[in-house]
Fold each of these.
Amino acid sequence: MSEQKKYPNFDLTGKVAIITGAARGLGKACALALANAGADIGLGLRDITTAKDLEQEIKTMGRKVIRLQMDVSSLQQISESVEIMVKKFGKIDILVNNVGVAPDNPAEKVTEADFDHTINLNLKGTFFTAQAVGKQMIKQGSGRIINMSSQAGFIALEDESIYCMTKAAINHLTKNLASEWAKYNINVNAVAPTFIETPGTKPWLDDKDFRQGVLDRIPLGRIGKPMEVAGAVVFLASDASSLITGDIMLIDGGWTTR
Ligand SMILES: NC(=O)c1ccc[n+]([C@@H]2O[C@H](COP(=O)([O-])OP(=O)(O)OC[C@H]3O[C@@H](n4cnc5c(N)ncnc54)[C@H](OP(=O)(O)O)[C@@H]3O)[C@@H](O)[C@H]2O)c1
């Protein structure tokens, strides 16, 4: 086929992906979407006794899958999970660095415990998961890392100062890692969603006034679905995005255009 006719390839057959916080919400959607695109899957779980249904669903799709005890506040569990993945699959091609928490507190009421917990999971967990998987990808000479940012990394959301701060930091970390690891053929990008219907956002979005306030800010006029984020993750994991690195892809229905 001539160079011009090498069409973009979205197929992930033969690829191996690990997803943190995979039990529900965006992590679960990413795991299913990557499996649907052909990848074998490691489910990073805060509690390994969860996600048995998800494991079965992925098996039914014809993919290999493993559940991993991977609380990202434990550097030991992170490194053990990477070891288990490499033992089972021989490599890791894709990391979806998804875990994040969002305490809802006016800045003047944020406690030290809130602050430490959020930094610990959103920043320390994201960094050291990228480091542990990155070391393996450096050995392989290839890899894709997709960090879970948020529109909150671009704009100020009310009562979310520490969350916004960590997502802005993830954006910058994404650029740092992209720049540093380009020489190893590792692409590092992030996705930055608006409000998406997940178990995590349900308590907020169930509040009619809050929901209307969100809808009023989204030009496309609706709350997002997890698969609308997972679609971008599959693209960034695929060969079709080979020249993209250090990008933070907004998936915000246009929120940040106004
Ligand atoms: N949903 C949105 O509107 C939205 C928008 C922008 C960005 N995001 C980002 O997307 C990511 C996922 O959000 P979500 O709405 O899908 O969240 P979610 O519904 O609350 O799910 C979070 C998942 O992360 C897991 N988790 C929590 N702490 C963990 C830990 N220490 N180690 C490993 N796993 C842990 C949870 O495990 P258990 O099930 O065991 O509790 C759960 O499965 C977060 O980074 C969030 O900031 C979400």
Note: Residues 20-21, 23-27, 46-47, 50, 70-73, 98-100, 102, 121, 148, 150, 193, 195-196, 198-201 surround NAP (CB under 6 Å).
Amino acid sequence: MKFDNAVLESSYGTAKQLPVSDIPEIAFSGRSNVGKSSLLNKILNRKALARVSTKPGKTITINFYKLGDVRLCDLPGYGYAKVAGSERERWSGLMEHYFTTDRNIKLVVQLVDMRHPPSKLDLDMLHFLESAGYHFIIALTKSDKLNKTERKNRLTALQTELSFLSDTVKIIPFSAEKGEGADEIKKEIENAILGDEGNNVII
Ligand SMILES: Nc1nc2c(ncn2[C@@H]2O[C@H](COP(=O)(O)OP(=O)(O)OP(=O)(O)O)[C@@H](O)[C@H]2O)c(=O)[nH]1
Ligand SMILES: [Mg+2]
């Protein structure tokens, strides 16, 4: 699977605008500022296809990228405290619509900042993905910011913090800076797409 020729399909700010799910989708979810856009740029070999922000939580949109016959969905980040209540409602409306309208979601990449224990909202999201039966993996972002001891301690603590998850959920340390984990995430995406579609999907 080639990851080189992605294009921005469109950005959607309301649930009504979302186009029908006519092709396999890979969704990327996580709190605001966790590094979603950076991860997308890394795996798509692009410097700035997805806009990396220094100010989190500025826009709440779902951004769709097309990669051949596959759609990559950059879901809006959650948990930015300064966002007004009405924006939070718009966020939950969009997310609910995305996850409850029978889309062809092959894999969800859930991003969690490797430096900190998963937040309440991260855990809510993981519980939701688990109970709804999605195929998902966890990317532990910003792994380059931890030293060896911190890294070991976080990985140990996560075994308890995420003990409610099935053993089959892959947890992949990732760094957009160093490239750690990028190949593994690409492999998971490829497997999720090709797994049951054979070679019918052009990617
Ligand atoms: N050191 C380091 N910094 C990172 C990494 N990934 C993201 N960052 C930084 O974290 C900040 C947020 O990154 P984004 O990729 O914009 O995060 P996002 O989740 O898309 O943020 P929103 O779209 O605003 O919700 C930026 O300053 C990035 O440069 C990483 O792997 N390592
Ligand atoms: Mg972003």
Note: Residues 149 and 191 are 32 Å apart (CA to CA).
